[in-house]
Amino acid sequence: MSEKILLIEDDSDMQTLISDFLQNYDFEVQAFDKPKEALAHLTSNPNQYKVIILDLMLPQMDGFEVCRKIREMSHAHIIISSAKGEMSDKILGYGLGADDYLAKPYEPRELVLKINSFLRRETKSHEKIGDFEVNEEKMEIAMEGYVLELTKIEFDILHLFLKNTNKVFSREVIFNAINDISYNAKDRTVDMHISNIRSKIGDDSKNPKYIKSVWGVGYKFIG
Fold this sequence. Notes:
Strand content: 15-25%
Shape: elongated
Order of helices and strands: EHEHEHEHEHEEEEHEHHEE
């Protein structure tokens, strides 16, 4: 299955060059010359693309503003492809969420190498488990396409459960997995975090779909 690439480039010759070159490497390219149309499309398809190639010198909007808006709605890797090659432009681009910066002119093969590098990294760090998708690199867990707002400890616990479906964990094991201090049986910290996670994933403790309490022991993930 071809990976989908979003290209925002108003120069028709450059757009054609990049699109044709990427299609030769089995990428499916959706190209826009107007950033507002691209952003509207991305708003409706926020998880469709893993890589977005963005020119900075665009009509309608400043390219840096486009970069900022993309990052607000998407976790896709952003590669800026621009004739603006000053260090100050690169620093600003990275600061707004870009992952890489190619100053024109560049060899199109270099663009392919960067895209493949991001996709390999994506494959290693992403794992789909039932209704959930784990991004270890960004320490994020998405549920049915929506990123959960988890604290680090909540991420660690849910990640532990997802990697060990149907395995029973005692409170002590969970506690020790997320802390570097001794466990006290009277400590209810684990129960508090489990309650918070249940709330965020819409799980009912009395009729659980995901996290089941094991009486006298701890918890197990059944989703």
